[in-house]
Amino acid sequence: MKLATFAVETPVGTVERIGAVDESSENDATPAGEATLVDLTAAYGATLEAEGEPAPADLARAHVPPDMIAFLERGDRAIADAREALAYATETDAERGPSGATLRYEPGEYDLLAPLPRPNSLRDFMAIEEHVQNSMDGDVPDVWYDLPVFYTGNPDSVVAPGETIRWPDYSEIMDYELEIAAVIGKRGRDVSADEAQEYVAGYTVFNDFSARDIQGEEMDGRLGPAKGKDFANGLGPYLVPADDVDVLEAPMTAHVNGEQWSEGTVDEMYHSFADIVEHVSQSTTLHPGDVIGSGTVGEGCGLELGRFLEDGDTVSLTVDGIGTLEHTVVR
C-alpha cells in the first residue's frame, strides 16, 4: 500500500486528504501523480455505510483521519482500517461515500503533496560509511563510529513531489542527496533498539537538497549545517508502511535529466534505523510524524562525484517499492 497526501479543489476551497494508490492504475513506469488515488477517509466511510453503521462519515474521520499526522497517531489501527478502505474501493463499483464524498480521484483531479507536508520534526543522519569517507577525504572521525550523528532540519521547508525548487540566492553550488527516511508512528521515549521497529510506521524517499558552498563555510565554524540545508527537503512521493517494503534491499537510484548518477541501497548503513531510533529517543520523546533520514548512500550526491546540478536540471530519486521523487532546480 502506498499512502499519499493530496489536495483537491472544493466549493469551499482547497482541501487536503489522505489517499492510497489504486494499484490497478499503476505500473513501474507510472509517474507520481499519474495514478488513481482512493480517498481513504471517504472509502472507509463507504464501508461503514455498507455495513449499516450510523454516522459513517463521522466514524470514518475518527478511524482514518484526513491528515497524515493524525492518521499516524492512530498507529497500526489506522493502517489496518486504511487497508480495509482501499480493498473496498478497488473491489466495488461505488463512486461515492457518505454525504456524496468522492471515493476515487483520477490524474488531473488532484495535486500530489509530500506525504507529510509539515513533519512534526526532521532529523537527518549520516549513517553510511562510504558517503562519510568520500565527503571527508577518507578521514572519518572516531565519534562517527561511536554514535549516530545527525543535524536537525527545517520541517517547514518540505517541498511537494514535482515542485520546482528555487536555488537560494546565497549559494552557487547545487546538490542532491539520495536517501530514505523512516517516519515515526508511535510516541515513545528511551526506546531500545530491540523495540525500535514498533515505532516506525513506514518509509519514504528523501532528497536532502544541499547548498554546498555555504554548508562548507558554516561548518568550518564548528556548527551546522544550517543555511546549507535550510531551504528545501523533498519527501515522497508516497509513504509505504514498514511491512510493505524491505528498505534494506530496495534498489535506489538518482537520475539527473534522465542520466543515472547514483545507485545503492541502505543496507550499507553502519548505524541501523533501530540504533538511530534508540539514540534519538534517549531522554527525548518521539512523536508520530517525526522524520528520520538515513543519510546519503555511497556516491549518492554530486559532492562525492565531483559534479553538481545546474540551472534547470531535473533530479529523480527512485526507491523500488516506494516510487520516484522528482524536482527541477532553478536559479
Task: Please explain how this structure is put together.
There is one protein chain. The protein has 331 residues and is an alpha+beta fold. It has 2 domains: 3-113, no CATH class; 121-330, Fumarylacetoacetate hydrolase, domain 2, CATH 3.90.850.10. 22% of the residues lie in helices and 30% in strands. The strands form 5 sheets. Strands 7-6-19-11-13-15-8 form a 7-stranded mixed beta sheet, covered by helices on one side. Strand 20 and strand 21 (323-330) form a beta hairpin. Helix 1 crosses helix 4 (76-91). The longest helix has 16 residues, at 76-91. The chain is globular and about 65 Å long.
What keywords describe this structure?
331 residues, alpha+beta, Fumarylacetoacetate hydrolase, domain 2, 2 domains, 7-stranded mixed beta sheet, 5-stranded antiparallel beta sheet, 9 helices, 21 strands, globular
What topology emerges from the helices and strands here?
Elements: E1 3-10, E2 13-21, E3 37-39, H1 40-50, H2 56-63, H3 68-73, H4 76-91, E4 104-105, E5 111-113, E6 121-125, H5 129-135, H6 142-146, E7 150-152, E8 158-159, E9 164-166, E10 174-175, E11 178-184, E12 188-189, E13 200-208, E14 210-211, H7 212-220, E15 233-241, E16 252-256, E17 259-264, H8 273-280, E18 285-286, E19 290-293, H9 302-305, E20 314-319, E21 323-330
Parallel strand pairs: 6-19, 8-15, 9-21
Antiparallel strand pairs: 1-2, 1-5, 2-3, 3-4, 6-7, 10-14, 11-13, 11-19, 12-18, 13-15, 16-17, 16-20, 20-21
Helix pairs in contact: 1-2, 1-4
